[in-house]
Amino acid sequence: MNAIELRGLTKRFGDVTALDDVTLDVREGEIFGFLGPNGAGKSTTIDVLLDFVRPTDGEASVLGHDCREASLAVRQRVGVLPDGYHLYDRLTAREHVEFAVASKRSDDDVDALLERVGIADAADRKAGGFSKGMRQRLVLAMALVGTPDVLVLDEPTTGLDPNGARELREIIRAERDRGATVFFSSHVLEQVEAVCDRVGILREGRLVAVDTIDALRGALGTEARLTLTVDAVDDRLVDAIEAVEGVSSVRVDGSRTVSVTCEDDTKAAVLGAVSAVGVALVDFDTEEVSLEELFAAYTETEEEDGAVDAGAATPEVGR
Ligand SMILES: Nc1ncnc2c1ncn2[C@@H]1O[C@H](COP(=O)(O)OP(=O)(O)OP(=O)(O)O)[C@@H](O)[C@H]1O
Hints:
By secondary structure, the protein is of the alpha/beta class.
């Protein structure tokens, strides 16, 4: 059984088509990243799953339950971290989680949940004084109540510092490992890339791609940028790098830095070429295609229906 099934899902708000014929299967036990720029329709999809919004057309189900007909059954088995969740300023963190425990009729240990999301120290403080990251951690604790079969997280990294983002990834992996399905939306590729088994890219209400990020990058033949810092740049070095198959450009930036654009799987060969000419490599840095470029590339694929050059994509296409 799939954890989430969307069939021809369409939602119009007046003239705005928020979702346009979206069909998607999220498998049980996978971490699925739902990616898209602002306004792409991510929150609307989540609202349909929870029956906060009724689709104009099409169907959605969670664990075999129709989201409209069986919304209570769905909500009972789903843990949600909604976008912009409203906390009660005068209630403490503990009271918030106690409320979630009571409404899910679970017997979870409130302190253990607060500990798990890293705010045990603030258990008895009122949420009104919480920072953005603390609020996000508290809402995550509420989402985890009742060992949900499906976790739906809308922009869960909002407000989290790098440590918080890492801890969130660890929690997401642990939830998947115990058998839960995790569906989370983001417009930050880096956040989902580290944990997601697969991603779907939504653009202007349409699902333009569903696959692993590696496969999406691979299918586009996208290039990586490699910045090398060496003890001294010379012509021999530049010639040697240019000679590597898959390298499309080499640019010298000052006396010690070379920027190379190459196929993703030729990075090792470039490093090999550097050592073969006897130049000492001091440091190197790689940068892969950004989410913006992935969006741009997928948009071009649709329009041109042919080969894609992500590097040639105009930056504004990805917004
Ligand atoms: N209640 C509503 N009434 C009118 N239009 C709406 C409503 N909810 C969403 N929309 C519109 O539907 C489109 C999709 O919005 P949605 O919030 O689903 O996008 P999103 O991908 O979650 O964006 P973000 O990353 O900014 O949260 C947008 O054009 C938005 O303005």
